[in-house]
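Reminder to self: keep the SMILES exactly as supplied, no canonicalising. Ligand is 2-acetamido-2-deoxy-beta-D-glucopyranose.
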Amino acid sequence: MASRIALLCLLGLLVASPAIADSGIYYQLELMWPGAYCEQSSAGCCKPTTSAKPARDFFISGFTVYNATTDAPVNRCSNKAPFDPNEITDIPGLKQYWSNIKCPSNNGQGGWKNAWKMSGACSGLKEKDFFEKALEFRSRLNPLVRLQKNGIQPDFELYSLKKIKKVFQSGINATPLVQCSMGPFNKYMLYKLYFCATEQGTFIDCPVAPKYTCSAEILFHPFKRWMLQQLQGEDAEFAAAADGDDQDAFVLPGVAMDI
Ligand SMILES: *[C@@H]1O[C@H](CO)[C@@H](O)[C@H](O)[C@H]1NC(C)=O
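Structure tokens returned for the bound complex:
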């Protein structure tokens, strides 16, 4: 009997030990709604020069590793790993969901390099793991699908800020920070969502919560691919595709919705 208990204890330790691993960090994922970006940016928004079409969905616009003790981004270390574009070429969904639609059109490398330098290089994560982790969080959140299942969609309508937060609260048990920007008719519109997760991947309310100004009801601006400006003489194929299909040919694998 005693040896059985000892064995159970040992098994318990073995099972529990990975969860105990904790280097005192948490993650913050910043997601941007491209429809709001295109609407508010004076230069508009531009189709990236990569072959992949940006997703018709929230994009990753930042992924930051925080020190859980100080709540400061982990961005100082003596040994910053340099950014190597070749490390991330094969990551599924990177070009679609971490897309850079700034004008003039660009290939996204600048944004990824910046994210790596600002937050990845000192995070203790390998470069590929850093980007994959951000994409994995994004797909677990699956924010557009989650919102749409609750009747909240990018259709120019006004939606209750409280209800938007509640959709996530009841789905992932954490409340996002919502950042608004000024939209048409002087209405605040949904611009960015910020989510935090522990090192083990559990979503939590972000410990650092700057106050963003929104109204009680905010506009959810449509995002259509035709909003992305073409380079002159760019492929007609893309323009035609943007006109017709309202479906994304690309779906990130492993997206599980449990709501
Ligand atoms: C977090 O900050 C504390 C206090 O400065 C420091 O001792 C610790 O090493 C930091 N942790 C990480 C993961 O950077």
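Points to follow up:
The pocket of 2-acetamido-2-deoxy-beta-D-glucopyranose is lined by residues 23-25, 67, 69-70, 74 (CB under 6 Å).
Helices lie at 2-20, 34-40, 94-97, 109-120, 127-141, 143-149, 161-172, 236-244.
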